[in-house]
Amino acid sequence: MSSKTATEPASASAAESHTTFFRQSGWLVVATVSGGVFMTATQMVANRWMAPAEYSVWFALLRIFLLMSIPRPWAMPSIDSLRERSGPPCERRFTSG
After folding, report:
1. How many independent structural domains does the chain possess?
2. Is the entire prediction scored with pTM above 0.85?
3. In terms of domains, do 70 and 37 share one?
């Protein structure tokens, strides 16, 4: 085998991997930007349709939901260790109380 044929599949695989990465990251950017646009539109529509007191409550609840949905990197190791200690999913026994 020549060195040219040995490196061709690797370079083709690397090019395909690059293309896949940029295609997936492009979709991520589109999803993030469109989510921000729709959230801004929701805020403007809600501000016009709701009374100021209702809008304040809605906005506070939306912020609480946002804070609850942020992944906590410092909590993941403890969650993983709990999962490891409990064993495989088929052997876990949940007790009440």
Report:
1. 2
2. no
3. no
